Amino acid sequence: MSRQKLNIGLFGFGVVGQGLYDVLEKSPALDSRVSKICVKRRINRSLPDDMFCYDPDEILEDESINTIVEVIDNAEDACFIVKKALQKGKNVVSANKKMLAEHLSEMVALAKEKNVSLLYEASACGSIPVIRNLEEYYDNDLLLSVTGILNGSSNYILSKIFDNHESYSVALKEAQELGFAESNPSFDVDGFDSLYKLIILTLHSFGVIVSPGEVLNYGISNITEFDINYAREKGYKIKLVAQVERLRDKKIALFVLPRFVTRDKYIYSVEDEFNGVVIKGVAYDKQFMFGKGAGGHPTGSAVLSDITALGHHYRYEYKKASYFGGFKYFKEAAIELYLRYSNPQVLRNFEFKSVSEEYHGPKYHYKIGFIRLDKLIAIKDKLRDLDIFLAATGKALNY
Ligand code: HSE
Fold it and tell me: Are 84 and 177 found together in one domain?
């Protein structure tokens, strides 16, 4: 099949949109061009005025445009654009993890029905080609787990806290200034961004679409000096880790939690805005993918790769769902957690299956033990408001 020429309508010209435009300019061999850019407000003045439009339909109704690249921030607007583009029979490249995670079933079905391609490599781990590899290389049932640092901003913050002894708020401000952080930083630091990415990776790892609301995500916004010192004294780092893991009997478990990471782990050395993904399987043991997970050019390069792949008529086949399906999300598995608290009343919220360690200090106390994921999911929105910090110890799940 010959390479198809892509006439691209681009939605969004922020950090990622401009990054994509730059990397496209650096790829003259690519037989594709951006012919229109739809923005809410014009900020960039370096391109001619007639490149820009403000009404999505100017692109969506244009029959000469056969490919939509959507790199906007707003998930609702992205949903409208992607849905309409697919309905119009256009190929779509999207980087919007929230929109995708919340509408995967619908979007995947629509792309199939309309016989077009929906690609989204840039939605998870920026420049790291994790989705394509899960889909194409790990296209068998040997996969055991995918574990990673999927959020550059929170990793940047944790690196600055641990390595440079910076305060949480200064480090967050830096991540925002550097353009890694989402417009609502709670997305990053409370683990939502990692959660959406994990939902997407779970589909390509095990063929299961899980609703984000059904998965525990807890982030780093409640971390204190006490927690940092606890980790330092033990020689650990704290990383915000997302994991999907195959359990017995075709069950899987997934969650996003801060985790104590020992020096012998690959992700221990993943610093700043970098992401790192460990893929574990039968026969090959562990493999590690590392790279920039945020920023205009790294994310733009992932979008570019999808555009190139589209030129070659590439589509996700969702091989796991088609050939190795039948995995079920099992929320009753228990995870070992460190729970730091000051007011003992807070413990009423937690049902420990077993406790291995307890500490009582003048201001802070902690308890380490196993708690079932479903019990935490039931109170996941409340967890952020409690005066606590939770971190996984990294012990195997109990189920
Ligand atoms: N806010 C995201 C991050 C951007 O920090 O990783 C890339 O998805």
Answer: no
Distance (angstroms) between ligand 1 centre and the Cα of 349 equals: 31
Atom of ligand 1 nearest to the CA of 294: 7
Q: How far is the CA of 359 from the centre of ligand 1 (A)?
A: 35
Say whether both 249 and 381 belong to one domain. Answer: yes
Tell whether 170 and 105 lie within a shared domain.
no
Of the candidates 90, 197, 320, 331, the residue annotated as catalytic is 197
Q: pTM for the whole thing?
A: 0.97
Q: Is residue 309 part of a domain?
A: no
Instruction: Kindly report the CATH number assigned to the domain that includes residue 107.
Output: 3.40.50.720
Residue 141: the pLDDT is 85
Residue 140, pLDDT score: 87
In a domain, 302, yes or no: no
Coil/strand/helix, residue 131: helix
The Å distance, Cα 31 to ligand 1 centre, comes to 29
Say if residue 35 is in the same domain as residue 161. Answer: no
Pair 266, 147 in one domain: yes
The mean per-residue pLDDT over the stretch 264-288 comes to 96
Give me the pLDDT at residue 164, please: 93
Q: What percent of the chain has pLDDT over 90?
A: 87
**Separation CA 7–CA 32 (nearest Å):** 6
Q: How far apart are CA 222 and CA 115, in angstroms?
A: 46
Angle ∠(55,56,60) on CA atoms, nearest 5: 130
Phi (first) and psi of residue 130, to 5 degrees: -80, -40
Mean pLDDT of 269-287: 96
Kindly tell me if the per-residue pLDDT of 106 is higher than 80. yes
Decide which of 98, 120, 142 is a domain's last residue.
Answer: 120
On whether residue 308 sits in a domain, the answer given is no
Domain encompassing residue 12 = 6-120
Going from the C-alpha of 8 to that of each of 55, 64, 246, 345, 379, the distances in angstroms are 16, 9, 39, 57, 44
Q: What is the 3-state secondary structure (H, E, C) of 292-308?
A: ECCCHHHHHHHHHHHHH
- Give the CATH number of the domain where residue 172 resides: 3.30.360.10
Question: What count of Cα atoms within 13 Å lies in the side-chain half-sphere of residue 47?
Answer: 19
CA–CA dist 228, 160 (Å, integer) = 12
156 CA closest ligand 1 atom index: 5
Residue with more model confidence, 365 or 27: 365
Across 253-268, average pLDDT = 98
Tell me how far apart the alpha carbons of residues 20 and 251 are, in angstroms, rounded to a whole number.
38
Q: Are residues 158 and 272 in the same domain?
A: yes
